[in-house]
Design brief:
The first copy, chain A, is flat. The first copy, chain A, is 64% helix and 0% strand. Chain A is mostly helical. The first copy, chain A, is built from four helices and no strands. The first copy, chain A, has one domain: MazG-like (Helix Hairpins, Orthogonal Bundle), CATH 1.10.287.1080. Chains in contact: A-B, A-C, A-D, B-C, B-D, C-D. The interface between A and B is large, with 58 and 58 residues.
């Protein structure tokens, strides 16, 4: 499904609520929380952090989904199109940064 | 374009390089850096931070694109499908969290 | 107690372990996780996030302590003196940034 | 200098301004921005990120100072004592977590 359709699906759903979108800095804080949870999962898998017995198994896919969900909400609230945003980032990687790393 | 196609396009491009993907914790650090730049842009727009004269105008769309680009690289390197990830997050919002906020 | 003494106390304690300090990017990931928990606590207190019934009460002091603990470990491992670091930041606020905000 | 004295010095200075402390979520966003800059510096030093020619040399001590400065502002605004906070974190490391890692 295209990114734009996810943006629409989430917006349609959130319109059922009195306050569809939190204030921007509150949404940002949520994104940071989700990035923190992704960090914990990465640290368990790739770093030296040892999971506590009481902790649920990590779910990197789930944490990435939460980060992306938060980002989509922020883009919706800003009226921004994430397809354009990612196309811009890809285009930057292929032009400005194309010689920054060693080629095969 | 579907998320999966962005994942493929980025992977195809990165395969031109000797080390297509950084090590996982290095990719995570890059994501955190991009989230930091998005935070600065939000703080200029919605918080009390005043832009320095020397700073370029903020570009929230661009910062979101960079965050998403970093996330796609991480998902590619993990062999994860972001379509599944975001569908899982949407489904969680519509079930587990559906009564967490006040409806219209 | 001076910051330097906290740095020493933590280092003395960590020297009891086989690997006193995690690798740097793993320490960074831990710091990000702690900042994420502080974000959640702030979002509950100041944002629109509603605490789940299953969540423990927030403890902003505790989260700040965890962030600071992580930062001290990183400084120790880098051989850096946080007293110098904070004095530098204070001095920057009092000189470079002194006219950036409206005075009383 | 004790942490408490840094808290006082920063508060004394900020009282010269009309709005000594930004709103809490704006302060949090600033902290995240600073953690992002520390991440970039770590990624240059320990990860695979290659510095652009246009970038200033990294200054890990400076970035740590900025993170700590942001944290002190947040603690001041919350009326929290960072000495208590760090002592709590140290005490947790020495009790709850003391057997979590392998001893020498």
């Amino acid at each position: 499904m295209p990114l734009r359709d996810y943006q629409t699906e989430i917006d349609d759903w959130l319109q059922n609520y009195k306050q569809p979108y939190w204030t921007p800095l509150s949404q940002l804080a949520r994104l940071v929380e989700e990035v923190g949870e992704l960090s914990r999962a990465y640290n368990h898998k790739y770093g030296e952090k040892i999971k506590k017995d009481s902790e649920a198994p990590d779910d990197i896919e789930g944490e990435m989904g939460d980060v992306l969900f938060g980002l989509i909400c922020m883009a919706n609230d800003e009226g921004l199109d994430l397809d354009r945003a990612i196309q811009g980032a890809i285009s930057k990687a292929k032009t400005r940064d194309k010689d920054r790393f060693e080629k095969k």
